[in-house]
Amino acid sequence: MREKVVEVRGLKKSFGDLDVLTGVDLDLYKGENVVVLGKSGTGKSVLIKIMVGLLTQDEGIMNVLGDEVSNLTAKQLNDLRLKIGFSFQASALYDSMTVRENLEFPLVRNVKGLSKAEKNKMVEEVLDAVGLLQTINQMPSELSGGQRKRIGIARTLILKPEIMLYDEPTAGLDPITCSDINNLINEVRENFNTSSIIITHDLTCAKDTGDRVAVLLDGVFGAEGKFEEVFNNPQDQRVKSFYDYNFIV
Amino acid sequence: MADKSTKNENIISPKIDKTLLALTDAFAFVKRFFVEVWLPPYEFKEVIRQCYKIGYNSLALISLTGFIVGIVFTNQSRPSLSEFGATSWLPALISIAIVRAMGPLVTALIAAGKVGSSIGAEIGSMKVTEQIDAMEVSATNPFKFLVVTRVLASTFMIPILVMYTDFVALMGAFLSVHSKEMVSINTFFVQVFEAISFLDIFSSIIKSLVFGFTIGIVGCYKGYHSSKGTEGVGKAANAAVVLAMFLIFIEELLALQIVNFLRMS
């Protein structure tokens, strides 16, 4: 039986009068890539922010690696966060730090007793894994959008997470860079043995990276399964129009 | 996006409720600072980096402003004193004015504009670009790394800058006095130190600590609560300056009352 690393049941979240998630159920199994698809503003990012405790659900269960996130103390939540890598939509690199300092930031605060040589080795290893070793002394402002995404992913990989959460990894990138990022997501899974949730509205990204896709419609998953199962002959008109819009536009 | 709590009905009126909520939020922010400042891990390296940034970045502007204040204040005071043939009192008058009020006030106002806005904009921009969230998900306490360090740095650095401003302003005043009254530097500074008391210096330092804390905490608070993209960052920087300046004047007024009370008793 496959090991479940994330279990979401009946998850609800509202902001003011706006009900964003109205009863989401989702499972993520070890070594699996699940893509959460949906239009902008449907609560895709909210779902993964609840997973790392940046937001709290109003109702429902969010169980990550055996822990109910909303019941954790600050210390326990931090311990859990170390096992989760979060790649932000706009990369969220620290502007005032070089690439090396960005990568060292989580390392020096969470792994004690590392020598300078060990730190350098770890930083260089993850930069090499994302193919950007040459940028080690550059500032984030000197990098392209695609490079920033890769460095953002490298920063999360340095703590060897068990779960990777990607928030719109291909947003705002050209098709070739998107394809590079999709390949990187797959390489990360193979080389770092991660399970991943990929939030996107890009169907090419979903097709290239997802073992399963789940389409978020009106606060719940309206369709779920392999990419072909969901999109080859969609019963739900909203899923069909989402597919048509993506590929025709 | 507002959280679910905004669904609650208003208690008094929307405006008053909003103001009360903002005040509660601000007090909670200050309280959090006083709790977290004692808790490990301590970000000494970042505090020192911020001290250097605050001190070094403000030095040129403060030097120029302090020097000009010294000259202008001396030149403006001279005619009134000369009417009574009391221009020899200039060093005493100027030293009291500079050490008691003008040095701390001018430094704090300049720092509110330069340091406060820079803190507000920097933290605001980190907030809207999710850098603060990124710190949080990497199990680092962003409040400790960003807020505690900056508030401590500005609290420590403003008194040092105030003492420096006092010195530069007195040098400006000396040049003005020397050029008209031909007073030597020795005589000038003997009169300066005869005129000011321990209470003047002590109250000036305490006041500067409070000003520094105000500048830091207001800049951090406004930045930490900024939203709505780049527009929000601009608003945060602006609000940090306006609010810090307003609070500095209020604090100056309160400090004056307290020092006068101490002097009388």
What does this structure look like?
The complex is a heterodimer of chains A (249) and B (265). Chain A has a single domain (4-248), classed as P-loop containing nucleotide triphosphate hydrolases (Rossmann fold, 3-Layer(aba) Sandwich). Chain A has nine helices and ten strands. Helix content of chain A is 39%, strand content 26%. In chain A, the strands form two sheets. In chain A, strands 6-7-8-3-9-10 form a six-stranded mixed beta sheet, with helices on both faces. The mean pLDDT of chain A is 93. With 249 residues, chain A is an alpha/beta fold. In chain A, strand 9 (212-217) and strand 10 (220-225) form a beta hairpin. With 265 residues, chain B is mostly helical. Chain B has one domain (45-264). Chain B has helices at residues 14-36, 44-83, 90-128, 131-137, 142-181, 185-195, 198-224, 229-264. The chains are: A alpha/beta (249), B mainly alpha (265). Chain A binds chain B through residues 14-18, 49, 52, 54, 58, 78-79, 81-82, 84, 86, 88-90, 92-96, 105-106, 109-110, 155-156, 159, and chain B through 1-4, 6-7, 41, 122, 125-126, 129-131, 133-140.
Give the arrangement of secondary structure elements.
The complex is a heterodimer of chains A (249) and B (265).
Chain A: E1 4-15, E2 18-29, E3 33-37, H1 44-51, E4 59-64, E5 67-68, H2 74-81, E6 84-87, H3 99-110, H4 116-129, H5 145-157, E7 163-167, H6 175-192, E8 195-200, H7 203-209, E9 212-217, E10 220-225, H8 227-231, H9 237-248
Parallel strand pairs in A: 3-8, 3-9, 6-7, 7-8
Antiparallel strand pairs in A: 1-2, 1-4, 4-5, 9-10
Helix pairs in contact in A: 3-5, 5-6, 6-7
Chain B: H1 14-36, H2 44-83, H3 90-128, H4 131-137, H5 142-181, H6 185-195, H7 198-224, H8 229-264
